[in-house]
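step=encode ok
step=design start
structure_in=
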């Protein structure tokens, strides 16, 4: 093993969160050393690994983009456009020198004796070691290497090809084929119109409908401001604030007047398909915002259905057959290719083996502090974004918190910080990571035992409310009772480990 390298901060992942974290380190903590490790061959995370046709954002880029770099394209963007934008951030801020690709982290061990993390990663066939004072987890929340596909009876008898969008094969030829897409979320809604023009026919099979927001893939305010030759930096900030203001109002209305919001959402789809089709296949049983609502640019999914190139079937799968799928209703759907757009596999902490002072970490037994820090885990922050707003909004807020915390530790001359329940929290009930009555996507329900617990107090929960957190997180008192600092002089920079 080669000699270890030491950094003040080690950032895990070079996706949207990790690249943002690197930027904020250079701007807010320029005196600290840091490195970004990613297991992939380049930056981008989701936008690099997902190769299925039509892959695009399901929220607008004015808020999914970083607050510090204006977005100048259409609100809903393709993976290629997002990767280009991220590449510009890396180039413009000289971040490439901080990023190490093809470094798959296998273990992370904390030593209270040294106040250090030791991280081991595979780089090719070699094990490499790093030490760091602080660990910043930006790896996301799902496993990139494989998507979630349920086990249905008879799958082994099906003579066609079964594909998950997350591992889309380059050689998949769907031209003039009958294709069946299982799913009802953003991935399915993206795939169907993207392939419908080439397929003989494509059918969207869903167990239950979901909500969508169809609309023009344009922002009238941004277009008007550009006509007035307003600076792009101003346009980005103005449009971003307007979108966030509108989203806040929409979210509040979804709780306060759910039936009115429901009618508005269904009415928008009716403009494309008519009331009978909407009643049959696009009327969910749950109130708006219990699951993420995807934007459908220019109503392309519904236009594909209206044209006859695609159709929707709402039913339950009984089993696979040689030629397709037999439904509970008794109808058989025949297909040459079946695409299972059935979701993610939750992946807490990146499949990394964590240990605290030699003891394996059971992440599910920790309690979260605002969805960022966790009881019993020193010097670590995890970026977990919003479900009802763009992920990057929270990545930026968490970055501000991390940089402020690092500077605060320097001011206090301490090398260790962790969060702990206070005396007044001793009788606090410990609950699942998220209230499933409030938000309940399948990937969270399947993996809830892997995630930390939450309390019934705001500081011990992962909030989904950006509009409050944008004021709350900057106002956190870093000397509050829940923050426990080690007053010892702290870690020395370790001597290099001899090769072995």
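sequence_out=
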């Amino acid at each position: 093993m080669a000699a270890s390298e030491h950094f003040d901060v080690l950032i895990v992942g070079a996706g949207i969160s990790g690249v943002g974290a690197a930027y904020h380190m250079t701007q807010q903590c320029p005196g600290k050393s840091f490195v970004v490790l990613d297991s992939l061959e380049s930056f981008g995370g989701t936008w690099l690994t997902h190769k299925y046709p039509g892959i695009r954002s399901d929220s607008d880029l004015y808020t999914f983009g970083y607050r510090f770099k204006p977005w100048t394209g259409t609100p809903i963007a393709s993976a290629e456009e997002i990767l280009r934008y991220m590449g510009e951030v890396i180039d413009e801020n000289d971040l490439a020198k901080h990023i190490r690709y093809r470094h798959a982290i296998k273990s992370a061990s904390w030593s209270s004796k040294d106040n250090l993390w030791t991280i081991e990663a595979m780089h090719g066939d070699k094990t490499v070691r790093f030490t760091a004072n602080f660990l910043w987890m930006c790896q996301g929340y799902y496993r990139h290497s494989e998507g979630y596909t349920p086990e249905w009876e008879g799958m082994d008898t099906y003579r066609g090809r079964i594909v998950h969008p997350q591992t889309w094969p380059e050689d998949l030829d769907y031209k003039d084929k009958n294709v069946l897409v299982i799913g009802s979320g953003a991935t399915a809604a993206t795939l169907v119109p993207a392939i419908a023009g080439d397929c003989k026919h494509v059918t969207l099979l869903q167990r239950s409908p979901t909500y969508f927001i169809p609309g023009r893939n344009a922002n009238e305010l941004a277009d008007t401001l550009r006509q007035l030759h307003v600076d792009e930096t101003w346009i980005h900030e103005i449009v971003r604030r307007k979108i966030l203001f509108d989203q806040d109002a929409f979210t509040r209305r979804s709780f306060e007047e759910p039936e009115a919001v429901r009618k508005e959402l269904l009415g928008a789809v009716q403009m494309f398909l008519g009331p009978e089709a909407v009643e049959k296949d696009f009327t969910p049983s749950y109130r708006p915002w219990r699951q993420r609502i995807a934007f459908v640019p220019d109503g392309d999914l519904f236009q594909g259905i209206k044209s006859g190139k695609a159709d929707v079937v709402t039913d339950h799968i009984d089993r696979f057959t040689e030629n397709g799928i037999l439904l509970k209703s008794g109808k058989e759907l025949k297909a040459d290719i079946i695409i299972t757009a059935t979701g993610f596999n939750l992946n807490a902490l990146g499949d990394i083996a964590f240990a605290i002072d030699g003891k394996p970490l059971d992440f599910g037994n920790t309690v979260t502090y605002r969805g960022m820090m966790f009881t019993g885990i020193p010097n670590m922050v995890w970026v977990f974004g919003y479900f009802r707003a763009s992920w990057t909004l929270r990545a930026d807020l968490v970055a501000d918190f991390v940089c402020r915390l690092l500077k605060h530790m320097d001011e206090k001359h301490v090398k260790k910080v962790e969060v702990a329940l206070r005396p007044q929290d001793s009788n606090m009930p410990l609950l699942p990571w998220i209230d499933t009555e409030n938000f309940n996507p399948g990937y969270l329900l399947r993996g809830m035992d892997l995630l930390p617990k939450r309390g019934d107090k705001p500081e011990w929960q992962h909030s989904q409310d950006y509009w409050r957190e944008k004021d709350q997180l900057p106002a956190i008192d870093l000397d509050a009772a829940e923050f426990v600092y080690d007053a010892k002089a702290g870690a020395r920079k370790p001597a290099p480990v001899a090769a072995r």
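step=design ok
step=annotate ok -> Residues 489-500 have pLDDT under 50 and may be disordered.
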